[in-house]
Structures are given as structure tokens and as C-alpha cells.
């Protein structure tokens, strides 16, 4: 049974079902576009069993980790994943990662809404003061989504990623709680 944790108009963030959801995520890893857009490690297809083991190991390695499935409200289908990890409670810092798995589900606002749900949770419920996200310079849609949500490019690691026989920059983006609150309240910067 999937537990609903955070709700929006289009999507909700829920628990991850290791059996059914691992099957779905496994299919995503067989899509080269998915692996090139969202994974830091080298692209390789994973079986459902490998997916389950990976999430189990990540959960054990990082106790300060919040892991959610992204599900469409209209049919409860898992369309993505979002994780909040690397949390440093004394500094109020964390890292987020978000993925919409199937290309047919991208571009409909699901990722943006899931990001807003997670930002609200991180900044208001967990009282974090800063979030970081990583992406690649060729992920223009992801960069735009993060910037629209208040993230700024803070670090550019030149030629850190080799994809499709080309070197690409890895971008580190950051968002501050106060900037996010101002955006939500409609306060213009500056």
C-alpha cells in the first residue's frame, strides 16, 4: 500500500513500493535518455532486484534521507522519484534530486509541482535553510525548472562528466529558505 505524504494538484509524493515500483524504475534505466539526464554514475540497465538492493543500500548508508515516489493523482501511477539527503542538521543543509522517469510524463508540470512540494517540506517542516541540487549543463529543462523554483547556479565543475564521447560541465545549484519564502510570497528580489 502506498502512503500519501505530500499532496499537490497534479501529483503527490508517497512511499516507494519495493515490489511494483522497482519494476517501473527498472524500465526507466533501460532508456539511455533517462540515464544521461538523471544519473551521475555510468549508464547501465538495472533489474528490479538491483533497484531494490540499490535503494536498500542507500537507505542504510544515509540515515538522514527522505525518499519519495512521485505519483499522478489521477491514476496513482509512479512517474518519478525525489530524494532529500546529505542532511546536515546543525547547518540546516540538504541535497535534493528529482527525476521524472518516462519521457511521456515530462513537460506536463509534474516535476515542477513535485519540486515545490519538496521545497515546502524541506524549508517549513524540516526547517532546513539551504538546499543543493546537481545537474549537467546539457539538461536545459532541469536547469530551467530549478532556476524557476529559486535555485541559482553556484558552482560549475568544468568538464566533470563524460557523456556520449563529449566532456560536459557539472552544475551545482543552491536555494536558500529566505529566497524561497520571498518567491512564494511574491516578493521581488533586490
Give me the secondary-structure topology.
Blueprint: E1 4-7, E2 11-14, H1 20-29, H2 32-38, H3 48-61, E3 66-72, E4 78-88, E5 93-100, H4 110-125, E6 130-136, H5 140-148, E7 152-163, E8 166-176, H6 177-185
Parallel strand pairs: 5-6
Antiparallel strand pairs: 1-2, 2-3, 3-4, 4-5, 6-8, 7-8
Helix pairs in contact: 1-3
The amount of beta strand, in percent, is 25-35%
CATH architectural arrangement: 3-Layer(aba) Sandwich
Number of strand segments:
8
Task: Write the CATH homologous superfamily.
Answer: Gcn5-related N-acetyltransferase (GNAT)
CATH class: Alpha Beta
Structural class: alpha+beta
Enumerate the strands of the largest sheet in spatial order, edge to edge or round the barrel. Answer: 1-2-3-4-5-6-8-7
In short:
This protein is α+β, with helices and mostly antiparallel strands and 190 residues long. 34% of the residues lie in helices and 34% in strands. It has an eight-stranded mixed beta sheet with strand order 1-2-3-4-5-6-8-7, sandwiched between helices.
Amino acid at each position: 500500500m502506498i502512503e500519501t505524504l505530500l499532496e499537490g494538484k497534479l501529483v503527490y509524493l508517497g512511499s516507494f513500493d519495493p515490489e511494483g515500483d522497482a519494476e517501473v524504475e527498472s524500465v526507466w534505466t533501460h532508456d539511455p535518455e533517462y540515464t544521461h539526464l538523471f544519473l551521475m554514475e555510468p549508464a547501465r540497465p538495472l533489474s528490479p532486484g538491483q533497484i531494490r538492493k540499490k535503494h536498500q543500500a542507500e537507505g542504510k548508508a544515509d540515515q538522514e534521507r527522505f525518499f519519495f515516489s512521485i505519483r499522478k493523482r489521477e491514476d496513482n501511477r509512479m512517474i518519478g522519484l525525489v530524494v532529500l539527503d546529505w542532511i546536515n542538521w546543525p547547518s540546516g543543509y540538504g541535497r535534493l534530486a528529482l527525476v521524472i522517469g518516462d519521457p511521456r510524463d515530462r513537460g506536463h508540470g509534474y516535476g515542477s509541482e513535485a519540486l515545490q512540494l519538496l521545497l515546502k517540506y524541506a524549508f517549513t517542516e524540516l526547517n532546513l535553510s539551504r538546499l543543493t541540487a546537481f545537474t549537467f549543463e546539457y539538461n536545459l529543462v532541469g536547469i530551467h525548472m530549478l532556476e524557476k523554483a529559486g535555485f541559482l547556479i553556484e558552482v560549475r565543475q568544468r568538464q566533470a562528466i563524460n557523456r556520449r564521447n563529449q566532456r560536459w560541465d557539472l552544475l551545482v545549484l543552491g536555494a536558500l529558505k529566505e529566497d524561497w519564502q520571498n518567491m512564494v510570497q511574491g516578493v521581488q528580489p533586490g
